[in-house]
From TrEMBL:
Signal peptide, first to last residue: 1-17
Name of the protein this chain belongs to: Photosystem II Pbs27-domain-containing protein
Domain of life per record: Eukaryota
Membrane found in the keyword field: no
HAMAP family per record: PSII_Psb27
Biological source species: Tribonema minus
Family matches, as InterPro entries: PSII_Psb27, PSII_Psb27_sf, TAT_signal
UniProt keyword annotations, A-Z: Signal
Length: 184
């Protein structure tokens, strides 16, 4: 329960920074401003190019990293349908895509911005339905959303999710998918 409360604060903090940070903190302001721009949706639709991760990456210390699965085309179906399981499933898949993106990937910034907006929309919309917010899939997804939103709040939309955090998020996404499949 305590970690949930902390996670809640992280998201609220990130969301309010997103809306209220002003020019007094130039770097954060730039990030907040970038995130609040909605015009990028059309850009994303136009730039439907595939972002493919390398088949085998070598970590900085020279050891082969976990084999990467090609990411496939960038998502273009951003936004909520207002059907809970459809949306939960969509948000997880978009988060998985965003989390998998490597440094320098062509669309990393667009994906991050869209994903972040979708996460905020998802939480804002579904948190008011007790029949949804009490679900296991929702509370788990909420926790993961806080982690990814926290990453963007700290590093902005261009910086990839560090390997350790990425690995944990990927495990959480799998758990969430299972809960969704079981309608929990
Ligand atoms: C939750 O309740 C609302 C009405 O309050 C309903 O429209 C919606 O379908 C319900 N969602 C789920 C996933 O049960």
């Amino acid at each position: 329960m305590k970690s949930t409360a902390v996670a809640t604060l992280a998201l609220v903090g990130a969301a309010s920074a997103f809306h209220s940070v002003t020019m007094t903190v130039p770097k954060s302001a730039q990030v907040a401003q970038d995130f609040s721009r909605r015009g990028f949706l059309s850009t994303v639709a136009a730039a439907g190019a595939a972002a493919v991760a390398p088949a085998l990456a070598i970590a900085a210390d020279g050891t082969p990293a976990v084999e990467k699965v090609p990411l496939g085309p960038m998502p273009v179906d951003w936004g909520l349908t207002k059907d809970y399981y459809t949306d939960a499933s969509k948000v997880v898949s978009h988060m998985r895509y965003a989390t998998s993106m490597e440094k320098g990937a062509a669309n990393i910034e667009n994906v991050a911005k869209n994903c972040r907006q979708e996460m905020i929309d998802f939480v804002s919309y579904y948190r008011r339905f007790p029949n949804v917010s009490g679900k296991l899939s929702y509370s788990n997804l909420y926790t993961s959303i806080n982690v990814l939103a926290g990453h963007y709040a700290s590093y902005g939309p261009k910086f990839p999710v560090p390997e350790k955090r990425r690995k944990r998020l990927m495990e959480e996404y799998s758990q969430i998918d299972k809960a969704i499949k079981r309608q929990r």
